[in-house]
Structures are given as structure tokens and as C-alpha cells.
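The pair is quoted verbatim underneath.

:::
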Amino acid sequence: MVTFKRRAIREKVLQVLYAHEVSQEPITKVIDDVLTELQTNKTDFDFAKQIIYKVIQHQDTLDEIIKSKVANWEFSRIAVIDKFLLRIGICELIYFDDIPPKVTINEAIEIAKNYSTEKSGKFINGVLDAVYDQLQQENKLKKSGRGLISESTTPTQKPSNPPKE
């Protein structure tokens, strides 16, 4: 049985969400098509599906959070890949108690560097760090276990101009 690194799984999640939006195919079909190789490992496959379904289930809420952090920019002008990465990252921060915030933020930044624009990493870092700080201040960050709560992930940075499509 092949085990995938979580980054590779997150990249597959990004691909599923993107393909679903572009194709308008049912999510189950897109999952079957894109996650074929993950199906050999139930843990990896289940992790990917959990993120996908949580992002879809809470998309409106996730988008409102994003909009609140990029109030000076039109949401529709944020690069599509960046929107998906922000949704995935915020979803992990809020709904996945066992994933350290630093891991969530760093993974989103690294994936953005490979799949989006030159400025996407900094933009995503700024937005996710602002969301993380807000969740901490409002005591809405429900992380448990060793290494899951600590000081801020990075020096507080405000998002730079979002990459355009």
C-alpha cells in the first residue's frame, strides 16, 4: 500500500476542487477521476475526501472569512487557485483539530508557489495568518495535542495585493 505525503494529498484536493468548479461534474465523479491513486490507501483517501467535503459544505462561510481579510479588493479578482488554497487552509484551521496551524499555513504557501502566481505565497501567508490571529483572539481555534497551539505562525503581515487571474 502506497502512502502519500499530506502535501501531495492537499495538491490532489486542490485539483479536485478546481476540476469540480470548471467541469461542473458531480463531486463524486471528480473524486473518482482525480483521486484514483489515493484509493489504495484508505487513510489518505479519507483525509482528502474530508477536506473536499468540508470545503464544499462550508464554502460560503469560508468565502466570507476571506472577504473580511481582503476588504479592499474585489473577491472575484483573486486568482482561482488562491481562493481554493485559502478555502482549504481556513477549513483546516477551523475544522481539523489535529492539524497544527503552522503546518496548514506552510503547506498552503508552498502549494501556492508551485501552482499559482509569483506573489501568491505572500498573499496566502498574509490572509491565513490574519485568519489564524483572529481565531486565536476570539478563542475559536480548537486545536489539541502536542505542538498544535503556539505563538503566531509568522510575524503579522497584512496581505499584499492579491494575484489577479
